[in-house]
Amino acid sequence: MKSVTLSTLQAYKHAGETFSCLTAYDASFARTIAEAGIEVMLVGDSLGMVLQGHTSTLPVTLDDICYHTRCVAGAKGASLLMADLPFMSNATTERMLNDAAELMRAGAEMVKVEGEAWMADGIREMTRRGVPVCAHLGLTPQTVYQLGGYKVQGRDAERAEQILADARTLVDAGASVILLECVPASLGKIITEALDVPVIGIGAGPDTDGQILVMHDVLGVTHGRTPRFVKNFMAETDDIAGAFRRYHEDVKARRFPAEEHSF
Ligand code: KIV
Ligand code: NA
């Protein structure tokens, strides 16, 4: 497979073709994910929960993400490698720039940052310096304590308008990709159609340009309450490589997510 780049994702968007994304944290799984044809790998700060056992992503440090990015970078194959800026990396533009530099040095090809329209300056400066940015909107797990829990965002018209406006502002500032987490499928569709950049969804309905899940959830290694948008692809196969392939094929064919996975 040819290496996936930002241009590949843009071409998918313009062709109306979907793409699949999955989190990855180490070399062995990264290799298996790449072999399944999954276009984007994310070293997510979800590692705080699935690897470190915390109940939120807030304890995750820049060093943690850099370590796992280095683990994945050598095994990512043709997939595009994105890494998360951790909690408070967005405190100032200078901090965002420095932290993004560390992630890129560790092997990231794009950074993802959570926040709203107020991040426009930071995103503009990162983009100017050659760092492609994905802006993560909707349910932003780093603000879980402010949000009062992991809840669907944008069910009411006012918040939905705000998420759309934030997305437009951040794309104008330079964001190359938008990620929407836990928003109604109707809002996922509106934002995807309104923007000229690829939109990746998790719990954002079937109409976003790309889909992403946490690797552990795809493999059924989910403890506690399983979110509605998750699907255990191991239930339909008996090996891990097969589960990744099935996930990729179901996203490409728009069989996943189904209505039962959407809000
Ligand atoms: O950290 C993560 O894994 C994420 C995805 C769930 C989008 O941000
Ligand atoms: Na994350």
UniProtKB/TrEMBL annotation:
Keyword S-adenosyl-L-methionine assigned: no
Record InterPro entries: Pantoate_hydroxy_MeTrfase (IPR003700), Pyrv/PenolPyrv_kinase-like_dom (IPR015813), Pyrv_kinase-like_dom_sf (IPR040442)
Domain of life: Bacteria
Residues that coordinate or bind Mg(2+): 45, 84, 114
Known function: Catalyzes the reversible reaction in which hydroxymethyl group from 5,10-methylenetetrahydrofolate is transferred onto alpha-ketoisovalerate to form ketopantoate.
Subunit text: Homodecamer; pentamer of dimers.
NCBIfam families (alphabetical): panB, PRK00311.1
Protein name listed in UniProt: 3-methyl-2-oxobutanoate hydroxymethyltransferase
Gene: panB
